[in-house]
Design a protein that fits this description.
This protein is an alpha/beta fold. The protein has helices at 20-37, 53-60, 113-124, 184-189, and strands spanning 3-5, 8-10, 13-18, 43-49, 67-75, 88-91, 101-109, 129-137, 152-156, 162-163, 179-182. It contains four helices and eleven strands; from the N terminus they run βββαβαβββαββββα. The strands form three sheets. A six-stranded mixed sheet has the order 6-5-4-7-8-9. Strands 3-11-10 form a three-stranded antiparallel sheet. Strands 1-2 form a two-stranded antiparallel ribbon. Bound molecules: inosinic acid (IMP) and magnesium ion.
């Protein structure tokens, strides 16, 4: 199957799992909810590079509060489709979050190891609160011992490797507008 970006067909895609229209509607809902929940608070929105960039840019424009933004980058997957379980800080935030309410914006939560690492780091910096907003969630993959809770979720999806809407495979496919399941042949080629 193919998906389209503009008028171009993209190969290597098995199916579309969340359409751009479904995502747009969901982002509006999430923005509205977050705006209500944080009314009167100083919200800091932190995007997790690089996967969350597309979702982050859509979401912050649906939050009708003054927000401060920053980015963090960690590595856990490398180039492969399998988690290594090791999380390493690649780029730290640059703003002071002491006493602030922080919302971490992520593309997808899988085992939960990445967000656990980020949440603990931000709490160590004395954030007042740290909540998580993830475009996608694979609940079946969660490591239950981690005890991580996602306050705002776009879509729960089955345990399949997905790309598009910011998510990559080996740094490719981030520009697809739909969230798509990658064809198994693509893994074989690498
Ligand atoms: P976790 O630490 O296992 O929760 O993994 C989360 C990170 O793994 C995300 O930030 C993604 O970068 C990556 N990841 C997990 N599942 C997928 C997927 O299906 N497609 C692309 N990246 C994924
Ligand atoms: Mg990521």
């Amino acid at each position: 199957m193919n998906t389209k970006v503009g008028n171009n067909l993209i190969n290597g895609i098995k199916e579309v799992i969340v359409t751009r229209d479904q995502m747009e509607k969901k982002v509006k809902e999430l923005g509205r909810k977050i705006s209500e929940d944080y009314t009167g608070k100083e919200l800091v929105v932190i995007g997790v590079l690089k996967g969350a960039v597309v979702f982050f840019s859509d979401l912050i424009r649906r939050i009708s509060l003054p927000v401060t933004t920053d980015f963090i980058s960690v590595s856990s997957y490398g180039d492969s489709a399998n988690s290594s379980g090791n999380v390493r800080l690649k780029k730290d935030i640059e703003i002071d979050i002491r006493g602030k309410d922080v919302l971490v914006v992520e593309d997808i939560i899988d085992t939960g190891l990445t967000l656990k690492y980020i949440k603990d780091l931000l709490l160590e910096r004395n954030a007042r609160s740290v909540a998580i907003c993830s475009a996608l969630d694979k609940p079946s993959r969660r490591d239950k011992d981690i005890g991580i809770t996602v306050q705002y979720t776009g879509f729960q999806i089955p345990d399949e490797f997905v790309v598009g809407y910011g998510l990559d495979y080996a740094e490719k496919y981030r520009n697809l507008e739909d969230v798509c399941v990658l064809s198994p042949e693509v893994y074989g080629k690498n």
